[in-house]
Structures are given as structure tokens and as C-alpha cells.
Amino acid sequence: xxxxxxxxxxxxxxxxxxxxxxxxxxxxxxxxxxxxxxxxxxxxxxxxxxxxxxxxxxxxxxxxxxxxxxxxxxxxxxxxxxxxxxxxxxxxxxxxxxxxxxxxxxxxxxxxxxxxxxxxxxxxxxxxxxxxxxxxxxxxxxxxxxxxxxxxxxxxxxxxxxxxxxxxxxxxxxxxxxxxxxxxxxxxxxxxxxxxxxxxxxxxxxxxxxxxxxxxxxxxxxxxxxxxxxxxxxxxxxxxxxxxxxxxxxxxxxxxxxxxxxxxxxxxxxxxxxxxxxxxxxxxxxxxxxxxxxxxxxxxxxxxxxxxxxxxxxxxxxxxxxxxxxxxxxxxxxxxxxxxxxxxxxxxxxxxxxxxxxxxxxxxxxxxxxxxxxxxxxxxxxxxxxxxxxxxxxxxxxxxxx
Length: 402
Fold this sequence. Notes:
Blueprint: H1 29-39, E1 50-57, E2 60-68, E3 76-77, H2 82-95, H3 123-126, H4 146-154, E4 166-167, H5 171-184, H6 188-200, E5 206-207, E6 221-223, H7 225-236, E7 240-241, E8 244-245, H8 249-255, E9 266-268, E10 282-286, E11 292-298, E12 304-308, E13 313-318, H9 324-343, H10 360-372, H11 387-399
Helix pairs in contact: 1-9, 2-5, 2-6, 2-8, 4-5, 10-11
């Protein structure tokens, strides 16, 4: 019999009595309050219709809940969080390609159309928004190939000289994707399947836009909270998933290393004035000495995922029902709340009053909460506080499980 489960009311991960000693649980009640509040417009500019929130700690799933209109495991559009997936594909190619390929490879080495003032553009610049290429909207044309799209982009004038400014956009990554096809001798989708989707066991994560022949490298993926978390956890662990190396440690390190020059002029950024960017993702949290603590992937309709390096966590806020600017601040609040929860350490399921022991005072604390009809007393998560909750509480308390 399952006595306690993670629920929206309590916000604590709890297990059945028989599993109690095998589980690690944290008090995520603050996370739950923030998440539930977003549905009714708290800590956001406008209410979020629906999302799935997932947290991992040291590779373990410690929190997963769907809110509002979102269903568990629902496939959603990643939008610009696609850039991180694509960055990983690019880095896999630096490890193994049919012809020479690195972040320093010049686009012109594979595509003659990128001559003249575009001849110095590198893959590194393409994946860190410093190439100077103009967004040409070619990624949204389903009837042309990725190669043809890159040639069209080459026909536009540069916005600035390569490497001299930061301007967030997708055209340069699309061009780098075309080069990746030429260097690998494979289509982008085949390359993605071989290097990421297969090793990570993806079922739902794929480039849905714009077409099979013109996949949108910087914004076309769909995914689920669980699959994207699996990907980010692989990055957090330095390239390993389920005991198998997916990316070289050096490749992950490059993704998590600033590829832009500090102080570079910022012409366009979703975070005004910010240009701390690796290979396909934002490097958003640093210690006083500059050590990287956190990285973020953000999509235009709210899909957000982060790596919390110093706390060993990964988070995914999976949605495509809102706007990035509406939920970015909320995601930071959730990340901070999750950090505080794990830093406080695991909680004991039977230690209801959180005093570090399992005794009669926990029974008193439970009954006080139960009589009030709140404070986590709905332990069986049936939406009410009744006798069934007493049975559920005593099941775990008598087992003395933590």
C-alpha cells in the first residue's frame, strides 16, 4: 500500500513504507507554492496556462508535477532551447567527423558562398552569436534544403564584422548546421539521431520545424520535460549518460565555457546587455571569482531548463503556452528555492515536525495540522483531509522511514 506520495499540497517527495529507506526526499514546499502560484498569476506578468516542472538531484528524479493545462510527459515546443541540443551535436562533430571540423573551422572552408568579408566566420562565432550574419528567415521555408538556406543567408550583407559584437539570433546556427552536414556527410537529422537521440534514448525529442530537409537548427525541436532533463543531466555529468559516454568531457567543457569576449558590444540580447554565452546556452550564474555555477537554456514560449553545477541539480520548466520574459524570473525563483531545499538536506517522512527525531511529538504535529485541514495533512493527496490521511501518516510513522 502506498502511504505517502509527492503532492501539490505538501510539495515533499515521499515513498511507500516499503520503499522509505531507499528514497531521498527534500522539502520542496516552497517550489510547489511558486509553481502553483504561477497558474493564478503570482510572480509572473500574466498567469501561465500550463507547464510541467521537473527537478533532478545527482541524477535522481526528486520532483515532477504537471500544472494547469499541461499533462505529465506532454510534448512541447522548445523554441530557442533547441540551441543547446544543436550545440551538443556540433560538439560531437568536433570529436568525430568525416573531414576536419572544429569550433575554429571557417564556414568558407565548406561553403564558397561565404567569401569576401564573410570568409573569416567560424563555427565558434556561429554558435555564440558573434558571426555578423543577418537573420534571413530562411529557416522557416520548408521547401528548400538546409544547404540552400545557408547560401541565401550568405547573400545578405553583414550586420557587423565577425567577432566584434554580440547579436542574438538563429541564422548563424542554421549556417553552421549546413556546414555540419557537409563535414559529416550526413543529414542534420541523421547526425542528431546518431550522436544524441539514440544514445539518450529519445522517443519524443526531434526537429519538428521546419521540414526534414530544412530543420530549424536554432529553434525547431520539440521535447518533454523528462527527455530534456536527461540531456541536461548528461551535460552536468560531463558527457555521460547511464554509464555510456555521449560527449567527450572536453566537448561539454567547451559548451560551458564563455565563447564571447567579455565587454563585447551587445547589439541584441533577450537579457539586456548580457553576452555570457557558451556553445548554444547561456552561462548565467557565477561565483565571485568567476567560476561557473549555472547555465540556462530558454525558449521563446517559456520552455526553460537549467543546470545547477554546485548543487548537482537539473531543472526543466516545460511549456509553450506563454512567453520567455513572462516566466524567466519565476524560473530563477524556483531554482533558488530548489537550491535551498537540497542544501537543507533530505527530510524524514515520519519526522512530521522536522525536529530530527521520530517520536510522539510527530503524532501531535500531524494531528494539529490534520485538525486545521491544511499544512500538508492531506498526505494521501485525495484533495481532502479525512481519516484516510491518518492511516497514511501512521503507515510511514510506524515504519520509522525517512
